[in-house]
């Protein structure tokens, strides 16, 4: 993980920057695992479910259905469009979230058994993205991904109070 708040909990690391989606929330993780293993944790349903959720459907069709099962067994399914899937380096998705849609991108760079993960979400305020809750949420899920990819237990990472409200103010003040 990228830092702590002094109590052993992760510290916020996201930032807003311009990118292909306009204003983007960007968060990075350095993962002590091969790029192939990190990629597998992003795209294989059984591995994905350990840290965030699962998907069903035919990715070759350009769309799947995704459920954030880490939110509970009754998590709703969301239609998810695949804009790019270039193993093991790029995953670019758009997923329905209520009446909105979220554009998400994960880029991976690997060398010597270490992977740099770069996450981005379109974050312009007119897109309905509440950074005070979305930012801590992605920090939480990316830390769960790190745990899954490195042999740890994603369930040992607790959302409240470390991520929210712990990181809410930081993300709420990002501009």
Automatic annotation (TrEMBL):
Name of protein: Polyketide cyclase
Family: Belongs to the AHA1 family.
InterPro entries documented for this protein: ASHA1/2-like_C, START-like_dom_sf
SUPFAM superfamilies per the UniProt record, alphabetical: Bet v1-like
Domain of life, per lineage: Bacteria
Coiled coil: none
Organism: Agromyces seonyuensis
One Pfam family of this chain: AHSA1
Activator of Hsp90 ATPase homologue 1/2-like C-terminal domain mapped to chain residues: 33-148
């Amino acid at each position: 993980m990228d830092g702590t708040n002094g109590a052993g909990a992760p510290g916020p690391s996201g930032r807003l920057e311009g990118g292909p989606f306009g204003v983007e929330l960007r968060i990075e993780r350095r993962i002590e695992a091969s790029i192939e293993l990190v990629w597998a944790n992003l795209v294989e349903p059984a591995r994905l479910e350990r840290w965030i959720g699962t998907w069903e459907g035919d990715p070759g069709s350009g769309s799947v259905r995704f459920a954030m099962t880490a939110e509970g067994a009754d998590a709703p399914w969301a239609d998810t469009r695949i804009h790019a899937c270039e193993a093991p380096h790029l995953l670019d998705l758009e997923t329905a979230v209520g009446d909105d849609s979220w554009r998400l991108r994960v880029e991976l760079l690997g060398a010597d058994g270490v992977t740099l993960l770069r996450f981005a979400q379109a974050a312009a305020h007119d897109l309905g993205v509440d950074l005070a809750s979305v930012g801590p949420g992605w920090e939480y899920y990316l830390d769960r991904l790190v745990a899954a990819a490195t042999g740890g237990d994603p369930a040992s990472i607790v959302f409240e109070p470390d991520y929210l409200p712990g990181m809410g103010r930081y993300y709420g003040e990002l501009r």
